[in-house]
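Protocol step 4 of 5: obtain the predicted structure for the target chain.
Materials: sequence only (see below). No template structures provided, no constraints applied. The aim of this step is simply to have a reference model before the mutagenesis design in step 5. Sequence pasted as it appears in the construct record:
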Amino acid sequence: MHTVHREEMAALKDDWAQLLEQQPEPVPFLHPAWQQVWLDEFQGDRDLLLYAVRDGDTLTGVAPLLRDGDTLSFIGHYSICDYMDFIVAPGRGRDVFSALLATLVDEEWSKIELRGLRDGSATLADLPAAAEAAGLSCERQDEAVAPRITLPASWEGFLSGLSKKDRHELRRKIRKMQGAGELELHTYTSPQDVEAHLPILLRFMVESRTDKADFLSEQMGLFFHKATQALAHHGLVRLYELELDATPVASVLCFDQGGQLFMYNSGYDPEYAAMSAGVVSKAFCLQDAIESGRHCVDMLRGDESYKYKLGGQDQTIYRCVITRA
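Step 4 output (structure tokens):
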């Protein structure tokens, strides 16, 4: 029989991280280290409702929720947490959600708004039936798209999978940069290296796109530093920096979990825009991902054209809303 209890993050985080690793496709935005940093920076006056679902002594589910007025939602915000979800042991969704909803009906809320649910989520598969059984209504809506690239075994295999036009354009852009000088991609993974080189990424983000400059407030910059450090301590960060003649020209921040790279944010020096430094840096990241044995690169929310020119295929992100009948 499953039991549900509210718990503190400090007591739950180790078991939570282990349960996350059991997921078919673990997501870094669901790691307790990431979520703790988000709470530290953005929780405000919202109430934390952190539930652990257990079958005996075995953790089978984690429900990281916040209450804002009469609405419950996931820890996080879709603007910086591309995916959000419950963490559920494989094959235990029905039992976990039945037990969780039996507990939640005793809390004060009129709506549970669950954003950021990706294709394949146990929540999408098992929550609607559990909600109906509990006398609740559950509505699912499309929210966004997140292109992803399934990686072949070789770089040439990747190139051959692109359309003729896109393959020709990518090769041309790479040759152009290579012809301009010595081109080298550096990869930083340790907390010390990530912290030392993150300011270059943040500067490129501000300089290369006005929307990113508007987004990257002082508070958001602090969050980037803290969150990347937290994940880097768990070996979940790959910060790429592309250099031309030993000068940084582009940077790409990726998270690395479960054999996938999650391409989180990027920027480039506008002086090298004519050389397509942004696209070339991402292509080099894909090449590194292939050569290091990753099976997928998730390009996360947004339908920017470069994602499709690099072979991205849409996956849908969903929003699920539960209301009391």
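Step 4 remarks: The first strand starts at residue 2 and ends at 6. The chain has two domains: 2-145+316-324, 148-298.
Proceed to step 5.
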